[in-house]
């Protein structure tokens, strides 16, 4: 997504979205609801009115929410709350947030500046061109996840496209990085949103590629590290998110997931869960993805067993692609283990061919 517009705009818009989400967190904490799962944190409209009036908000806060759009008529959850920012052009005066030091309300943004509105419009137009192209060519469009300071805006723009294009089946897939502490919440919220709004959920699940960068930025600027404390926690998070999406597929056969990983335990976990749920490879609800040139020993058997498998092809100038690939190799434990396994397989095959005098192997389909 950072190639489709000014990255700085994504940063600015992400900050707005994060502040808005923190405002909800602030209210749930004040009302003692913050110890529950994200979708269970519900604010009573009357209590919220009283609290916001105390903080200096003017007018009837209940009128912020058109009751016919609310999930439940007397309470607000995070998805109802986020809808206000979706409707921001209609209700710009609503965009206030508490100053966490003074606890007074202050404007979040009176309105996007003309230039930012244009940026947003252009990015959405470019995305739409890509999504239409995907529909015409009967392929899917997977939006990569990037650094956390871009991600809320990327997620928001992707959701706009999913609402438009994922009507019959998932065309646009969002990516969830399971090294993030908030990954499970993000997956749960978007699954629930797709249910409420009636579009088809499509996700690519990855562990996440910017670990070092995220940690050093958090330390440098002085905010909480957004990444799980260790590799094992990331593994648990991946499987938790995957199980949730697989359950959604079991419930609504229109949802799809791509397991984008080089990790054999994750692939085995997916196959086991699919078998338990009676999901066949040929149902084409669960895809697998590995980078081209990496972990063929995972991709090929999956493909031969009838699973839809994709090889990601990094495409671009060599000066950008080579650093990208070398970062992947550094980060991917799976790839390094995989490379060793691949070398052993190649040795075994070479020895087999030499000893059976079958140097050139012909494979008949
Ligand atoms: C098809 C495909 C698409 C991809 N798309 C994206 C994308 O859109 N966005 C993106 O960010 N990445 C993307 N990636 C890269 C991905 O996020 C991982 O970096 C890479 O796949 C390595 O993870 P793994 O699951 O293959 O296996 P493994 O080698 O088992 O896992 C390595 C990963 O575990 C995590 N990890 C390692 N150590 C720690 C630690 N100490 N604490 C917490 N977590 C840790 C890191 O995420 C690291 O990359 C993609 C990968 C593939 C194969």
From TrEMBL:
Keywords: Acetylation, FAD, Flavoprotein, Mitochondrion, Oxidoreductase, Proline metabolism, Transit peptide. Its main location: mitochondrion. GO terms for molecular function: FAD binding; proline dehydrogenase activity. It is found in: Mitochondrion matrix. It catalyses: L-proline + a quinone = (S)-1-pyrroline-5-carboxylate + a quinol + H(+). One of its GO terms (biological process) is L-proline catabolic process to L-glutamate. It comes from the Eukaryota. Its cofactor is FAD. InterPro entries: FAD-linked_oxidoreductase-like, Proline_DH_dom, Proline_oxidase. Transmembrane segments: none annotated. The keyword DNA-binding does not apply. Residues 98-335 form the Proline dehydrogenase domain. Pathway: Amino-acid degradation; L-proline degradation into L-glutamate; L-glutamate from L-proline: step 1/2. GO terms for cellular component: mitochondrial matrix. Its EC number is 1.5.5.2. Belongs to the proline oxidase family. Converts proline to delta-1-pyrroline-5-carboxylate. This is Proline dehydrogenase.
